[in-house]
Amino acid sequence: MPSAYEVVEKARKSGKIVKGTNEVTKAVERGVAKLVVIAEDVEPKEITQHLPLLCEEKGIPYVTVDSKKKLGASAGIAVAAASVAIIDAGNAEKDLDELLKEKGKEKK
User: Fold this and answer.
1) Domain harbouring 81, CATH code
2) Angle between helices 51-58 and 21-30 (to 10 degrees)
3) pTM for the full model?
4) Which pLDDT score, from 0 to 100, does residue 105 have?
5) Residue 89 CB: number of other CB atoms within 10 A?
6) Residue 66 is part of which domain span?
7) What is the pLDDT of residues 88-97, one digit of tens each?
8) Helix, strand, or coil (residue 44)
């Protein structure tokens, strides 16, 4: 099964992602995010704590990962990323479906 990091990296290369909590929040509010990936090691937690609730409200699946540093690297940036949203999975569509199935959060 592909990891969330791999799906983000593949989507970055062949589709479209947004990085950073402000951009991710906008993508969720607009309903264009296919998946939101949230780093668990963000301090302070308040930075991302609204995202799971917002995702549930909008019916957008989300997963958590352990490292903001690795998430940033997967997103193609040299700094940590608290959250990333996949807008267009590109070649990662199959991997995204697999990841969602595994997490029990099938696309609606």
Assistant:
1) 3.30.1330.30
2) 20
3) 0.94
4) 61
5) 21
6) 4-103
7) 999 999 999 9
8) coil
